[in-house]
Amino acid sequence: MLEVRLLGQFQVRLDGKEIEISSQAAKGLLAYLVIYETKKHLRETLVELFWGDSSPDIGRKYLRNAISKLQDMLGTDRLTGAEFILTDRASVWINKNTEIITDVKSILNSIPSSPTIKVLSEEVSNYGGKFLPDFSEDWVLLVRAQLKAAFNRKIELLLQLLVNEKRWKEVIEWAERWIAIEKAPEAAFRAMMVAHASQDQEFLVIEDFRRCEETLLKESGIPPSELTSRTYRQLTLHKEFGKYHQEVPVKGEPGEWLSSPGSLPARAVNNEKHLTESTHIALNTLVNGRYRLDRELGDGFMGVVYQAYDTRLGRDVAIKMLKKEHLGVDGYFRLIQEAQTIAKINHPNIVTIYDAGEFDGTPFMVIELLQGETLTAQIPKQFDEVLRILYQICAALHVVHGYGIVHRDLKPENVMILPDGKIKLMDFGLAHYDTSRMTREGEILGSVYYLSPEQALGKPVDARTDIYALGVLAYELATGKLPFTGENMVAVLSQHLYSMPAPPSETNPQLDTSFDDMVLRMMAKLPDDRPASIIEVIENLKIFLKGDSTTLRVTSGILFPPGVEHSKQTGETSSTQLTKSGVHLLVESWRKQGQEILDPASLALVHGSPPETVFEFEDALLLTRSALHRQVELDPWLARCGSKENAACVLERLVEEYPKPDIRLKIVRGLESLNNELATATLLRIATSDDAPTVRSQAALAAVSLGKKDQVIAGLLENMRMDNDVAAITAFVAVIDEYGLPKDTSGYPGLTVAVNLFQRRLKASGRLIVRQGVRSAFGAGIFLAANGLAAPFFIAISYPKEYQETLQFVTVPTWMIIGALGLLVIGALQGFASGLAVGFADAVWKGLSRRYFRLFLGGLSGLALCIYLVLFTRIGAINPITNPSVYIPTYFVYGLLMGTIITIVVPKLGEPRSLRSQLVKAFLAAFAAGLVTIPYVNLVYGSEATNFYLSRILLAVLLQFGIAVFLSSRENYS
User: Fold this and answer.
1) Are residues 915 and 883 in contact, defined by beta-carbon separation less than 8 angstroms?
2) What H or E segment, with its residue span, contains residue 498?
3) Staple 788 to which of 7, 749, 804, 823, CB 3.0 to 4.6 Å?
4) Per-residue pLDDT tens for 594-651?
5) pLDDT per residue over 575-598, tens digit each?
6) Which CATH code for domain 380-560?
7) Which CATH number is 1-102's, of 3.30.200.20, 3.40.50.80, 1.10.10.10, 3.30.565.10?
8) CATH topology for the 104-262 domain
9) Residue 131: DSSP 8-state
């Protein structure tokens, strides 16, 4: 049996023997596993949770070490012989066949329907200190909040039961214990005041209130609540403490003095019959001599609702009675506040209150009797019906928020649909005023499936909390599913805090993407990212209800005013670009429509350009996510993240949200542009784990280019399983292709597969190079041969006197045939050489696009050009028949030179999509190469030689390389 103590000092005992765990990470890992023992945990999640500051490969190494240490220390369960911690390649989890006891389990257990003092005292006695006091991670803070709320509920109920049985000594002991742990629990001080008052110890009642007042001022800077002050006043005004409490019925009234002191004096002389232990009142009972209980309508957590008949006014009503077991959880005060809240509001979509009072110490309120069903029972089937329901809820919330009230418990059970389609918003028991102190920070209230992140953390709430819950409700009504579910409350709360819901249209394809944008923005994690008020939601719903969702101008949930069009592809406004003055006009337009003014980041999205700088991480995340959704370039948005480190953090988070390869490739390119350690680490993680070979290849190449080559390649080798992982093999072949084989390949047997594949690709590339050369030679030779048929005419025009004697001995047809054959050989030779250069560059050296390699190649081309000119000058007019040994190598060098020049100017010849522009560039490149030689030829041989060169050689060069480029563009050789 393994015992793990997580409250106060961390302690682990195996079969009664204490085990010392020195590693802080191992402690946290064990605590996390036993808290969430019912589920498997992905290794990547654990690495992110505990070693998020390290690179993924280092984090995985730390995780392996921590798991190994825990398994060695804990060993196996003595009874079952099974290991406590189980693992596989992807996950880590607690073995269900082992016995593990923790001190937090009993506290987190739900309260039984009939709790006893023994059970409650055993459970709360385990709460001996702060949960993992040396840790500050988010998940630890969440568990602390849950434990604190559960402990407070249980110990308060325990005090109620002890007061009910007049066990005053134990009341004081448990109250003191509660004060020692939580510092300032007012309910504990109230319990002590009641206990001391019951024993005629008035001076101690005064001391209890003084301590309460001092403690609250010291801990939180606020005075005691009205409830505590009223309790003190009524107890000190009553002089016969012992006699008074002897007269008060105890049976079935736990905690009455603790939480409803206003009824104490009345109860001392009350002659009405008292309620039995049951929380339900017998039917036909006449409440306060006026309301006859006819039947029970519903039984909720806090209260029971009855249908009753108002004998005075002759009408049916509904009566909500607070359950007695919840009187002590500030229930009395909450029900009174609910009555006061509803009484202030007069709206057709909010339930109407008629009366409020107290019956036998139990508060109640009388409201209108509604004939209908809640949203839980009557789920809308048409989208229009969903919109109408949401619109009416928004109308009700608009009025509620106008009074400074937050509902805090918006859910289907609290929305009633009447037969005529009208809805009524009910149950304001958790309603909260902006200035109210009734709910302390750290207390979690509300239904967990609809709970906002700030509620989950026990933080202050405002109107945007209701907007979040309404977003969840809209999601559920439109899809039939909740956005977040889980095995337990903590699992659901964790998703509210950290998980992004899938767009509603993924579940219901009939939904428009603009509806997705609206709902997902309502469910933003940060309140500042949600609509600023319910008015924005109402305006969006109005447009949907008109049946023209195309007029809904939404970008990440941001509403565009009429007249501003938005391009989904570019994220820019069409027709007119909004300048700074345009933004001001936009704001004025919103003001005229009564809409809230958006924050600068939202305005930036509206006019299609990022703000100057976004300092908040969540703002940067929102903007970058929006850029990905709208498929625009990331660089301008990443530049506004404040720093490259911030931008890398944003992209690292977004990698987990977008599994699609096309979006991940954008993220990879964004990370490569950042060039920092975090970007390199994220690229390595993608290169070793992504499912898409293309994404892994690009990530691997980017990671090697950013980091230290040998170290990064070693990291890839260590974390890639290349024996059976096609994606890994493809990625590493791309690395070898770009950077060559690593120095040390020993110890990586899977690398052989990648090397063999690379060698096969290299051979295939060689064949492609030769084919490129042959195709280029064929085309160039044909064009030069055709040019050679016309050569005699060029010669006659350029050199009539010098060649007249030659023309007498050789007939024109013979000369044409000889020239054509000679030029066919020359053209094929030049074409083959230039084809080799182009093919080699396209098939192997993709690094041509890199700056330094292109400079080097440019220098080499210049050297080749110089060699060609020197040969041309010294040998003179080279004839292919009289000087073939010089002519052929010279033109081969010239072909290589021209192919290289074309490749430098047009580095992506293998992309047929831009054939026209490539041909233009290729002709310009060849023409530029010819122009380089013209001044030299003119200087050495004069204008006549230049004319000859221009009329014959340059024309042949242009034709040759034009066709070479055309043929090379017919197929992608890379």
Assistant:
1) no
2) helix 489-498
3) 823
4) 333 333 333 333 333 344 443 455 556 666 766 665 566 666 667 667 677 777 787 8
5) 223 333 333 333 343 333 333 333
6) 1.10.510.10
7) 1.10.10.10
8) 1.25.40
9) B
